[in-house]
Design goal:
Length: about 290
C-alpha cells in the first residue's frame, strides 16, 4: 500500500541515514524483550490460531514489524506505517527476501507511507495497534490517536511505549555538561513541535477518544560500561551531538567537554547510566 506524504506531522527529527538505521537496530535489539513482554501482558496472541491484524505505528525500517510478524505468526497481518519512504523500502526488500526464501512463519507485512494522523486503510477493523517512541515526535498526538482509533475494531488494543519523563536521563558520577545535554535534547525537540514527556498526556487523550486504560507501567534501563545497554546511549550521543552543535544548542567546547566526560565514564567500572523513564500503556477501544 502507498500513500503520499503529508507534512502535518513533520519529518523524523533524528534523520534517515545509515547511522540512524544502525542505531535503531541496536535500540530494538536491546528493547525487544521488553516489547514482547508488554504484548503478552496486553493479550496479543503469540503464534495466533486465528486471523489477527495489527498496525505498527511509526515502524521505521521495520525492526519491530518483523518482531511482531514472527510473534503473531502466519495467520497475522502487520501494516507498518511511517513517513520515511527509504526506511519502508528497506522493510519491503527484507520482507520480499524472507518470503522468497520460503519463510512461512511470518505474518503478512504491508506498508503505508503516511503520517499517523492522515493514513486511510480500506478495511479499518484492526485487532490492535502498537507504537514506540513515535508520539514524542508528533505535533498533534490527539489527531493521530483519533485516526488510529477509527482503524481499530471495538475492543481493539492500543499498546504504546513512550517517554514520560526525559529528565530522568542521568550519568553518574554527575556532571553539569551531561545535565545540559539532556535539557538541550528536550528543548531541540520542543522547538520542532515534539514532546519528550508525551506519555504523561497520553492516558487522558486516549480516554477522551474512546479508550479504556487497562494498564500503565513505568520502566527504565540502567547500565554500566561493561554492559551491552551502554551502547544504547553511546549510539544516540554520537548521532545527536553533531545536530545539537549545528543547531547551536551546544557550543563546540561543550560538545568536546561532553565527549570527554562520556569517554571517561566509559572507562570507569563504577559509572552508570540511567535512561529516560518510559511508560508502557495498554488501552482498549470501548
Amino acid at each position: 500500500m502507498k500513500e503520499s506524504k503529508n507534512s502535518s506531522t513533520g519529518d523524523y527529527i533524528l534523520g534517515v541515514s545509515r547511522e540512524e538505521y544502525e542505531r535503531l537496530g541496536l535500540q530494538h535489539s536491546l528493547w525487544k524483550s521488553r516489547a514482547t513482554r508488554l504484548w503478552k501482558r496486553a493479550g496479543i496472541p503469540e503464534h495466533s490460531s486465528r486471523e489477527f491484524r495489527m498496525l505498527d505505528c511509526g515502524c521505521g525500517p521495520g525492526f519491530t514489524t518483523f518482531e511482531l510478524a514472527n510473534y503473531i505468526g502466519p495467520k497475522g497481518t502487520i501494516v507498518g506505517i511511517d513517513l520515511a519512504e527509504k526506511y519502508l523500502q528497506l522493510l519491503e526488500t527484507r520482507y520480499a527476501a524472507e518470503t522468497k526464501s520460503g519463510n512461512r512463519k511470518l505474518s503478512r507485512i504491508e506498508t503505508v507511507c503516511s503520517p499517523l494522523d492522515t493514513f486511510r486503510l480500506p478495511n479499518p477493523s484492526f485487532d490492535a495497534a502498537y507504537a514506540r517512541w513515535i508520539f514524542i515526535f508528533l505535533r498533534d498526538p490527539e489527531t493521530a490517536i483519533k485516526n488510529i482509533a477509527t482503524h481499530l475494531k471495538p475492543g481493539g488494543l492500543f499498546i504504546l511505549q513512550e517517554y514520560v519523563d526525559y529528565t530522568t536521563m542521568a550519568l553518574h558520577p554527575e556532571t553539569e555538561v551531561f545535565k545540559k545535554f539532556v535539557r538541550m535534547v528536550i528543548r531541540s525537540w520542543a522547538d520542532q513541535g515534539s514532546d519528550a514527556h508525551v506519555a504523561g498526556k497520553l492516558p487522558e487523550i486516549l480516554a477522551r477518544n474512546g479508550f479504556e486504560i487497562l494498564g500503565l507501567k513505568p520502566q527504565t534501563r540502567v547500565g554500566m560500561p561493561h554492559q551491552r545497554i551502554w551502547q544504547w546511549p553511546d549510539s544516540f550521543f554520537k548521532n545527536y551531538l553533531p545536530v545539537l552543535e549545528k543547531e547551536k544548542y551546544l557550543t563546540p567546547s561543550e560538545v568536546g567537554e561532553f565527549e570527554a566526560v562520556w569517554s571517561e565514564a566509559s572507562k570507569n567500572p563504577s559509572a552508570f547510566y540511567v535512561g529516560p523513564m518510559v511508560l508502557d500503556i495498554i488501552a482498549r477501544k470501548i
